[in-house]
């Protein structure tokens, strides 16, 4: 009985460490991607995005940052779920970046092509923004996987 209690206690600790690791990794990835997105969209390429956006674009003072942040949070949580459930080992630098970059590509390109087929907006906008999300989510994926596997290493559980 004592042995099973020790195993249960160990399982609880391992799971708590896993949750703590993914929460920290998710928070860091969210903050970095949200910040990078703001710098890119509002500072570096603001004029490009304004001049190439559909006419339904709100004026900058009417942007709803809460909704934008919610979108980034959902994106980051989906990435975190994939990392926690499907990655048994650290994909290292290139693998972490490519995970995030692929996610960024999958999250934007199909949607932009569908919208481009229906709405009157610049294909340049869609391609530039897709390229940006490839990079931005690549950085997020790199940070998320690096932090998660630094804080929680599934290979060390049975050691």
UniProtKB/TrEMBL annotation:
Domain of life of the organism encoding this protein: Bacteria
Keyword Magnesium: no
Keywords (A to Z) from UniProt: Membrane, Transmembrane, Transmembrane helix
Pfam families tied to this protein: DUF2177
Transmembrane segments: 21-43, 63-85, 97-119, 131-149
Classification via InterPro entries: DUF2177_membr
Protein name in UniProt: DUF1761 domain-containing protein
């Amino acid at each position: 009985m004592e042995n099973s209690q020790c195993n249960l206690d160990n399982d609880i600790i391992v799971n708590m460490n896993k949750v703590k690791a993914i929460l920290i990794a998710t928070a860091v990835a969210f903050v970095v991607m949200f910040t990078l997105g703001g710098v890119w969209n509002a500072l570096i390429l603001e004029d490009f995005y304004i001049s190439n956006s559909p006419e339904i674009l709100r004026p900058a003072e009417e942007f709803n940052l809460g909704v934008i942040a919610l979108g980034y949070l959902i994106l980051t949580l989906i990435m975190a779920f994939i990392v926690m459930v499907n990655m048994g080992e650290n994909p290292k630098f290139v693998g972490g970046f490519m995970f995030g970059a692929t996610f960024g590509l999958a999250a934007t390109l199909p949607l932009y092509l569908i919208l481009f087929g229906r709405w009157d907006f610049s294909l340049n906008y869609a391609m530039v923004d897709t390229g940006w999300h490839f990079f931005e989510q690549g950085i997020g994926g790199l940070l998320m996987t690096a932090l998660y596997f630094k804080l929680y290493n599934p290979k060390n559980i049975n050691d």
